Amino acid sequence: MNDDNGEGVAIANLIAADEKTIVGWVYRWNTGALAIRWDMHGPQRVSRIYPDLSDADKAEIDFASLTQLPCRDD
Description:
The chain is mainly beta. The chain is 14% helix and 36% strand. It has helices at 55-60, 63-66, and strands spanning 8-16, 22-29, 34-38, 46-50.
């Protein structure tokens, strides 16, 4: 991570409802903020985060709402 360029680093994978497909990543920016980057198919239901994040980090990315999104095949 390069602090001078406002870059982030992926810290976790977002795992789809099928429990095997990675559908996005959680990034931590040099500011400490978290953000989600989706794969080319865009937002979709997430079943879990790997590796697991703290409850505070999950709240910051609103993990509960990610588990309610439509699945890719819905």
